[in-house]
Amino acid sequence: MTVRDSTQRHHMTKWLWLALIPAIAFAGARPYNMRKDPVYIDVHPDRIIVMPEKIEIAESELTVPQNNFECLLEQVASVRNSRYVLLILRPGSEILQHQLRQTIRKYDVDIGVDVWEEGREFSPIELMGIYEMGTADPPKPDPLEHIRMYPVTVEKDRIIFDNDKIVVTREELQIPGNPFETLVDRFEANGGNPYIFPYPINSPLVDDLWNVMRKRAPQMVSNYLAKNATVITPTPIEANTEEKRPVVFECRHNQLFFIRLEQPQATDPETQGYSFDSPREETDEKWFGSQLTELDPDTQYIWFKVRPDSFDIFRKARKVVWDYKLESTCELLGPNDPIQIESKIITDPQFNHTNEIPTKP
């Protein structure tokens, strides 16, 4: 490696590290969110894009040793307890997805897989809305969007009002009517807006500040919790498939088909799959819900085979799977790609589709 290559790699390492900053910077501010946060990789047929920084890496670069994608994975591996890689697959990226999976596994990093329409701008906010609702409908506006944050730096023996550069010592905080109490009262009188954000939260003084805010500013505390306590929603981290048996569904023509793992059996060429409008309506009495209720989450998981014309039914079905507390994974297939399960390849789309209920092993 030349000096120039080494310098470029150093700068790229710092650049890619920016993709990790949001979760690290706000980890302390979201104590109620115990899930891992994703590093988004937008996967196109000929390139990947690290989001939201929009760092592009060409497919041809991915085979070069110590390429920028591997550099990013090294950084993710260093914070694997809080981060994982989420591949956002576009139509046409069916082959590249497998190459990326193999590379990611070398770094012992959790991986998730999702799908996204061609030509549609990727948005993490939209994606979270899909996870919560099971549809790609536009997310509802944030009712607390107007609520602002007022940062307060907390040191060992003093606090600093960042915006106003006011310093209050630990001794002064013990005096009634001190500047911090005055600030709390003023913001509470304005409906708790802005809310005070003390950081870092592990400072010894933070508990004292919180006690003051709880007593004097309940609305401010409510605004703080609403803005900073992320709702725990399912995330598409791939299922732990060790010693588990897959239950496979194909998403095709925006319908669900159950795929047999044993020898394929011919079905009527005009066989119709299953579809539904809302995840909330899929109960134990409905076809898909009745199949899921028969499964054992300790020994089985759902494996979705998704065609480009069936993202909508996949999202709805995955939401139902999550509601049934089952693990799942997905694989993007081309319109005419054969279905491959381990060493078995199913090439005829008229075979192996059924609506029979798979039972517990």
Polypeptide structure, described:
The chain is of the alpha/beta class and 361 residues long. The protein folds into three domains: 3-133, no CATH class; 149-228, no CATH class; 245-354, no CATH class. The protein has ten helices and 16 strands. The protein has helices at 3-17, 21-26, 68-78, 94-105, 124-133, 179-189, 206-216, 218-228, 287-293, 311-323, and strands at 37-43, 47-51, 55-58, 83-89, 111-115, 149-154, 158-161, 166-169, 195-199, 245-252, 255-259, 300-306, 328-332, 339-341, 344-346, 353-354. The strands form four sheets. A five-stranded mixed beta sheet has the order 3-2-1-4-5, with helices on one face. The radius of gyration is 25 Å and the shape is elongated. Mean pLDDT is 79; it is low at 1-15, 21-34, 264-269 and 343-361.
Major sheet summary line: 5 strands, mixed
Return the string of H and E elements.
HHEEEHEHEHEEEHEHHEEHEHEEEE
Average pLDDT level: 79
Coarse morphology: elongated
Percent of sequence in beta strands: 15-25%
Give me the side-by-side strand order of the main sheet: 3-2-1-4-5
Distance between the termini: 54 Å
| Category by helix and strand content | alpha/beta
Number of domains: 3
- Percent helix, as a range, is 25-40%
Radius of gyration: 25 Å
Count, helices: 10
Low-confidence stretches: 1-15, 21-34, 264-269, 343-361
**Number of DSSP strands?**
16
